[in-house]
Amino acid sequence: MSGQPGPTPIVIADPRQMRDLILTARRAGRRIGFVPTMGALHAGHASLVEQAAAECDDVVVSIFVNPKQFGPREDLARYPRTLAADLALVGAKGAGWVFVPEASTAYPAGHATSVVVAAPAADFEGAVRPGHFAGVATVVCWLFNVVPADVAYFGAKDWQQTVVVRRMVADLAIPIAIEVCPTIREPDGLAMSSRNAYLSPEERRRAVALHEGLVAATERWQAGDDVAAVEETIRASLQSRDIPIDYARVVDPDTLLAPRPGAAAVALVAGRVGTTRLLDNALLPPRS
Ligand code: AMP
Predict the structure, then answer these.
(1) Could you tell me the pLDDT band of residue 276, with boundaries at 50, 70 and 90?
(2) Contact (CB, 8 A) for 46 and 195
(3) CA-194 nearest atom, ligand 1
(4) What is the average pLDDT score of the chain?
(5) d(Cα 48, Cα 55) in Å, to the nearest integer?
(6) Which of 28, 41, 42, 236 is 20 to 30 Å apart from 158, CA to CA?
(7) For ligand 1, is residue 192 a contact (CB within 6 Å)?
Protein backbone atom coordinates (compact mmCIF):
# COMPACT_ATOMS: atom_id res chain seq x y z
CA MET A 1 0.00 0.00 0.00
CA SER A 2 1.25 3.48 -0.76
CA GLY A 3 3.12 5.17 2.07
CA GLN A 4 3.89 1.86 3.79
CA PRO A 5 7.47 0.64 3.82
CA GLY A 6 7.84 -2.30 1.46
CA PRO A 7 10.48 -4.96 1.16
CA THR A 8 13.84 -3.64 0.03
CA PRO A 9 14.48 -4.66 -3.56
CA ILE A 10 17.67 -6.46 -4.55
CA VAL A 11 20.04 -4.03 -6.26
CA ILE A 12 22.03 -5.39 -9.18
CA ALA A 13 24.72 -3.55 -11.11
CA ASP A 14 26.21 -6.40 -13.14
CA PRO A 15 24.43 -6.91 -16.50
CA ARG A 16 25.37 -10.63 -16.65
CA GLN A 17 23.95 -11.29 -13.21
CA MET A 18 20.80 -9.32 -14.11
CA ARG A 19 20.25 -11.29 -17.30
CA ASP A 20 20.85 -14.64 -15.59
CA LEU A 21 18.29 -13.83 -12.90
CA ILE A 22 15.66 -12.93 -15.50
CA LEU A 23 16.33 -15.97 -17.67
CA THR A 24 16.21 -18.30 -14.65
CA ALA A 25 12.90 -16.79 -13.50
CA ARG A 26 11.42 -17.06 -16.98
CA ARG A 27 12.51 -20.68 -17.32
CA ALA A 28 10.61 -21.31 -14.07
CA GLY A 29 7.51 -19.96 -15.84
CA ARG A 30 7.45 -16.55 -14.20
CA ARG A 31 6.19 -13.50 -16.10
CA ILE A 32 8.63 -10.60 -15.81
CA GLY A 33 7.70 -6.90 -16.04
CA PHE A 34 10.33 -4.24 -16.68
CA VAL A 35 10.16 -0.49 -15.95
CA PRO A 36 13.11 1.49 -17.35
CA THR A 37 13.73 4.84 -15.61
CA MET A 38 16.35 7.49 -14.93
CA GLY A 39 15.54 7.62 -11.21
CA ALA A 40 14.35 10.64 -9.18
CA LEU A 41 11.17 8.62 -9.03
CA HIS A 42 7.71 10.06 -8.42
CA ALA A 43 4.11 8.86 -8.51
CA GLY A 44 4.23 8.60 -12.33
CA HIS A 45 7.02 6.03 -12.15
CA ALA A 46 5.28 4.36 -9.20
CA SER A 47 2.15 3.84 -11.30
CA LEU A 48 4.21 1.96 -13.91
CA VAL A 49 5.66 -0.29 -11.21
CA GLU A 50 2.20 -0.90 -9.78
CA GLN A 51 0.84 -1.81 -13.20
CA ALA A 52 3.77 -4.18 -13.77
CA ALA A 53 3.30 -5.77 -10.34
CA ALA A 54 -0.41 -6.26 -11.04
CA GLU A 55 0.28 -8.07 -14.32
CA CYS A 56 3.56 -9.91 -13.69
CA ASP A 57 5.13 -12.31 -11.19
CA ASP A 58 8.37 -10.33 -10.85
CA VAL A 59 9.17 -6.68 -11.56
CA VAL A 60 12.53 -5.16 -12.47
CA VAL A 61 13.08 -1.39 -12.41
CA SER A 62 16.21 0.02 -14.02
CA ILE A 63 17.66 3.30 -12.82
CA PHE A 64 20.22 4.73 -15.21
CA VAL A 65 20.81 8.38 -16.03
CA ASN A 66 21.80 7.66 -19.62
CA PRO A 67 24.46 10.15 -20.69
CA LYS A 68 23.89 9.48 -24.40
CA GLN A 69 20.37 10.93 -24.38
CA PHE A 70 21.49 14.32 -23.04
CA GLY A 71 22.83 17.03 -25.34
CA PRO A 72 26.06 18.86 -24.48
CA ARG A 73 24.21 21.87 -23.05
CA GLU A 74 21.54 19.86 -21.22
CA ASP A 75 21.05 18.93 -17.57
CA LEU A 76 22.99 15.64 -17.25
CA ALA A 77 25.22 16.92 -14.42
CA ARG A 78 22.38 18.36 -12.37
CA TYR A 79 19.75 15.69 -13.12
CA PRO A 80 18.30 14.75 -9.67
CA ARG A 81 19.69 11.55 -8.15
CA THR A 82 17.71 10.09 -5.21
CA LEU A 83 18.65 6.40 -5.12
CA ALA A 84 17.74 5.61 -1.48
CA ALA A 85 14.24 7.09 -1.82
CA ASP A 86 13.83 5.43 -5.24
CA LEU A 87 14.59 1.98 -3.81
CA ALA A 88 12.06 2.48 -1.00
CA LEU A 89 9.39 3.65 -3.46
CA VAL A 90 9.73 0.82 -5.96
CA GLY A 91 10.08 -1.75 -3.16
CA ALA A 92 6.78 -0.54 -1.69
CA LYS A 93 5.14 -0.85 -5.12
CA GLY A 94 6.29 -4.42 -5.69
CA ALA A 95 9.62 -4.34 -7.56
CA GLY A 96 11.93 -7.15 -6.41
CA TRP A 97 14.95 -6.16 -8.47
CA VAL A 98 16.48 -2.80 -9.29
CA PHE A 99 19.11 -2.70 -12.02
CA VAL A 100 21.59 0.15 -11.62
CA PRO A 101 24.27 -0.27 -14.27
CA GLU A 102 27.45 1.79 -14.40
CA ALA A 103 27.86 3.87 -17.57
CA SER A 104 31.03 1.86 -18.25
CA THR A 105 29.01 -1.35 -18.59
CA ALA A 106 26.34 0.20 -20.81
CA TYR A 107 29.06 1.84 -22.90
CA PRO A 108 32.19 -0.31 -22.62
CA ALA A 109 35.51 0.89 -24.02
CA GLY A 110 35.29 0.93 -27.79
CA HIS A 111 31.49 1.18 -27.81
CA ALA A 112 30.54 2.00 -31.40
CA THR A 113 26.94 0.96 -31.98
CA SER A 114 24.00 3.28 -32.11
CA VAL A 115 20.32 2.51 -32.76
CA VAL A 116 18.78 5.23 -34.90
CA VAL A 117 15.01 5.23 -35.43
CA ALA A 118 14.35 7.50 -38.39
CA ALA A 119 10.89 8.93 -39.08
CA PRO A 120 9.08 9.02 -35.72
CA ALA A 121 12.20 10.32 -33.98
CA ALA A 122 12.93 13.13 -36.44
CA ASP A 123 10.43 15.82 -35.42
CA PHE A 124 9.35 17.30 -32.06
CA GLU A 125 11.80 16.18 -29.32
CA GLY A 126 14.10 14.85 -32.03
CA ALA A 127 14.27 18.25 -33.72
CA VAL A 128 14.77 20.20 -30.48
CA ARG A 129 17.22 17.66 -29.00
CA PRO A 130 19.43 16.29 -31.80
CA GLY A 131 20.71 12.82 -30.94
CA HIS A 132 18.30 12.40 -28.03
CA PHE A 133 16.33 9.51 -29.48
CA ALA A 134 19.44 7.73 -30.75
CA GLY A 135 20.58 7.83 -27.12
CA VAL A 136 17.21 6.55 -25.92
CA ALA A 137 16.89 3.79 -28.53
CA THR A 138 20.48 2.63 -28.03
CA VAL A 139 20.13 2.31 -24.27
CA VAL A 140 16.63 0.81 -24.38
CA CYS A 141 17.82 -1.79 -26.91
CA TRP A 142 20.76 -2.62 -24.59
CA LEU A 143 18.43 -2.76 -21.59
CA PHE A 144 16.05 -5.10 -23.41
CA ASN A 145 18.98 -7.47 -24.03
CA VAL A 146 20.17 -7.32 -20.43
CA VAL A 147 16.64 -7.47 -18.98
CA PRO A 148 14.87 -9.90 -21.33
CA ALA A 149 11.46 -9.39 -19.71
CA ASP A 150 8.05 -10.37 -21.07
CA VAL A 151 6.69 -6.84 -21.03
CA ALA A 152 8.13 -3.32 -20.61
CA TYR A 153 6.10 -0.42 -19.23
CA PHE A 154 6.41 3.16 -20.49
CA GLY A 155 4.52 6.34 -19.61
CA ALA A 156 2.20 8.07 -22.09
CA LYS A 157 3.68 11.32 -20.81
CA ASP A 158 6.63 10.84 -23.18
CA TRP A 159 4.38 10.00 -26.11
CA GLN A 160 7.00 10.30 -28.84
CA GLN A 161 9.33 8.04 -26.86
CA THR A 162 6.64 5.33 -26.80
CA VAL A 163 6.29 5.62 -30.59
CA VAL A 164 10.06 5.42 -31.08
CA VAL A 165 10.42 2.41 -28.75
CA ARG A 166 7.50 0.54 -30.34
CA ARG A 167 8.97 1.22 -33.80
CA MET A 168 12.40 -0.08 -32.72
CA VAL A 169 10.94 -3.22 -31.12
CA ALA A 170 8.94 -3.97 -34.28
CA ASP A 171 11.79 -3.25 -36.69
CA LEU A 172 14.42 -5.22 -34.76
CA ALA A 173 12.04 -8.07 -33.77
CA ILE A 174 12.89 -7.61 -30.10
CA PRO A 175 10.79 -10.19 -28.22
CA ILE A 176 9.20 -7.94 -25.61
CA ALA A 177 5.70 -6.47 -25.34
CA ILE A 178 5.39 -2.71 -24.84
CA GLU A 179 2.67 -1.37 -22.60
CA VAL A 180 1.89 2.35 -22.40
CA CYS A 181 0.43 3.61 -19.10
CA PRO A 182 -1.51 6.84 -18.44
CA THR A 183 0.16 10.11 -17.42
CA ILE A 184 0.00 10.79 -13.68
CA ARG A 185 -0.59 14.45 -12.80
CA GLU A 186 -0.29 16.85 -9.89
CA PRO A 187 -3.64 18.04 -8.46
CA ASP A 188 -3.61 21.12 -10.73
CA GLY A 189 -2.99 18.97 -13.81
CA LEU A 190 0.76 19.44 -14.31
CA ALA A 191 2.22 16.16 -15.58
CA MET A 192 4.58 14.72 -12.99
CA SER A 193 8.21 14.86 -14.09
CA SER A 194 11.56 14.55 -12.37
CA ARG A 195 12.37 17.92 -13.96
CA ASN A 196 9.50 19.67 -12.12
CA ALA A 197 11.96 19.85 -9.20
CA TYR A 198 13.84 22.56 -11.15
CA LEU A 199 10.85 24.95 -11.16
CA SER A 200 10.76 27.98 -8.85
CA PRO A 201 7.40 28.55 -7.09
CA GLU A 202 6.52 31.20 -9.68
CA GLU A 203 7.50 28.92 -12.59
CA ARG A 204 5.58 26.05 -11.01
CA ARG A 205 2.40 28.17 -11.09
CA ARG A 206 2.90 29.06 -14.76
CA ALA A 207 3.71 25.45 -15.72
CA VAL A 208 0.06 24.44 -15.55
CA ALA A 209 -0.43 26.26 -18.88
CA LEU A 210 0.60 23.12 -20.78
CA HIS A 211 -2.16 21.02 -19.24
CA GLU A 212 -4.70 23.85 -19.44
CA GLY A 213 -3.89 24.32 -23.12
CA LEU A 214 -4.39 20.62 -23.77
CA VAL A 215 -7.72 20.58 -21.91
CA ALA A 216 -8.96 23.58 -23.93
CA ALA A 217 -7.64 22.00 -27.13
CA THR A 218 -9.48 18.75 -26.39
CA GLU A 219 -12.71 20.74 -26.05
CA ARG A 220 -12.06 22.51 -29.35
CA TRP A 221 -11.28 19.16 -31.02
CA GLN A 222 -14.52 17.66 -29.73
CA ALA A 223 -16.43 20.76 -30.90
CA GLY A 224 -15.16 20.06 -34.42
CA ASP A 225 -12.47 22.74 -34.86
CA ASP A 226 -9.83 22.12 -37.52
CA VAL A 227 -6.32 21.04 -36.59
CA ALA A 228 -4.83 24.53 -36.97
CA ALA A 229 -7.40 26.01 -34.57
CA VAL A 230 -6.82 23.24 -32.02
CA GLU A 231 -3.06 23.84 -32.18
CA GLU A 232 -3.61 27.57 -31.80
CA THR A 233 -5.60 26.94 -28.60
CA ILE A 234 -2.56 25.24 -27.05
CA ARG A 235 -0.20 28.00 -28.20
CA ALA A 236 -2.46 30.69 -26.74
CA SER A 237 -2.39 29.01 -23.33
CA LEU A 238 1.42 28.94 -23.23
CA GLN A 239 1.67 32.49 -24.55
CA SER A 240 -0.73 33.73 -21.88
CA ARG A 241 1.79 32.55 -19.25
CA ASP A 242 4.90 33.74 -21.11
CA ILE A 243 6.11 30.25 -21.89
CA PRO A 244 8.19 30.05 -25.09
CA ILE A 245 6.83 27.22 -27.26
CA ASP A 246 9.00 24.50 -28.78
CA TYR A 247 6.02 22.92 -30.52
CA ALA A 248 2.26 22.58 -30.19
CA ARG A 249 0.95 20.11 -32.75
CA VAL A 250 -1.86 17.67 -33.42
CA VAL A 251 -0.69 14.49 -35.18
CA ASP A 252 -1.46 10.83 -35.76
CA PRO A 253 -0.70 8.97 -32.50
CA ASP A 254 1.12 6.07 -34.21
CA THR A 255 3.12 7.80 -36.94
CA LEU A 256 3.32 11.39 -35.65
CA LEU A 257 2.44 12.48 -39.20
CA ALA A 258 -0.66 14.50 -40.16
CA PRO A 259 -3.77 13.12 -38.44
CA ARG A 260 -6.10 10.92 -40.47
CA PRO A 261 -9.60 12.35 -40.99
CA GLY A 262 -12.03 10.97 -38.41
CA ALA A 263 -9.34 9.04 -36.54
CA ALA A 264 -7.93 9.59 -33.06
CA ALA A 265 -5.03 12.03 -32.79
CA VAL A 266 -2.56 13.20 -30.18
CA ALA A 267 -1.80 16.80 -29.22
CA LEU A 268 1.89 17.22 -28.39
CA VAL A 269 3.22 20.28 -26.58
CA ALA A 270 6.63 21.35 -25.28
CA GLY A 271 7.70 24.67 -23.83
CA ARG A 272 10.34 26.30 -21.68
CA VAL A 273 9.37 27.48 -18.23
CA GLY A 274 12.42 29.48 -17.24
CA THR A 275 15.31 27.14 -18.03
CA THR A 276 13.20 24.00 -17.64
CA ARG A 277 11.76 22.21 -20.67
CA LEU A 278 8.38 20.64 -20.02
CA LEU A 279 6.40 18.29 -22.26
CA ASP A 280 2.85 17.06 -22.20
CA ASN A 281 0.28 15.57 -24.54
CA ALA A 282 -3.36 14.58 -24.79
CA LEU A 283 -5.03 11.84 -26.79
CA LEU A 284 -7.86 13.22 -28.88
CA PRO A 285 -10.70 10.77 -29.58
CA PRO A 286 -11.90 9.84 -33.09
CA ARG A 287 -14.56 12.18 -34.47
CA SER A 288 -16.81 11.97 -37.48
P1 AMP B 1 12.20 8.93 -16.91
O2 AMP B 1 12.75 8.50 -15.59
O3 AMP B 1 11.79 10.35 -16.95
O4 AMP B 1 13.06 8.49 -18.05
O5 AMP B 1 10.84 8.13 -17.07
C6 AMP B 1 10.78 6.74 -16.94
C7 AMP B 1 9.42 6.27 -17.37
O8 AMP B 1 8.43 6.87 -16.54
C9 AMP B 1 9.09 6.68 -18.81
O10 AMP B 1 8.41 5.62 -19.44
C11 AMP B 1 8.20 7.88 -18.61
O12 AMP B 1 7.30 8.09 -19.66
C13 AMP B 1 7.45 7.47 -17.36
N14 AMP B 1 6.87 8.64 -16.71
C15 AMP B 1 7.49 9.81 -16.40
N16 AMP B 1 6.62 10.70 -15.89
C17 AMP B 1 5.41 10.08 -15.88
C18 AMP B 1 4.10 10.47 -15.47
N19 AMP B 1 3.86 11.69 -14.98
N20 AMP B 1 3.09 9.57 -15.61
C21 AMP B 1 3.32 8.34 -16.12
N22 AMP B 1 4.55 7.91 -16.52
C23 AMP B 1 5.57 8.76 -16.40
Answers:
(1) very high
(2) no
(3) 3
(4) 96
(5) 11
(6) 236
(7) yes
